[in-house]
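Hi U.,

Before I forget, here's the chain from the pilot set. I'm dumping it here mostly so it's searchable later in email.
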Amino acid sequence: MNCRRARDLLTAGRATGGAARRHVESCADCERFARRLVAVETALGSHHAGLRPPAGFAAGVRARLPSGDGLIGWAALRLLPATLVLVLLLSWLNLRQEESVAAASEDPIAAVVGWVLDPTTEIGNGS
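Structure:
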């Protein structure tokens, strides 16, 4: 088991047995993480002792959250313009590169002169 998995289990409260517990016992960093997690849980528990949420609190929170389909659709719409710009940019770069290779294979001397003037351009191999 790796540290990330052990810490995920510790944070979720499911590291009570087996491999996670053995990892925490053998890893100084994870053991320190577990001690800090217990200290935070203890401090929060003592600070909020006796407090109970009102009846129906969890149901009210869930009712206010957007549904899974709406959230995915919203995210896709937000990413659509950026995706279109990226596709257009990559297409333009590909066309430009094809034109450069075609020009280099047609006139090798012009390609070398172009490279001397702008060393960032590539010289075609003529094949």
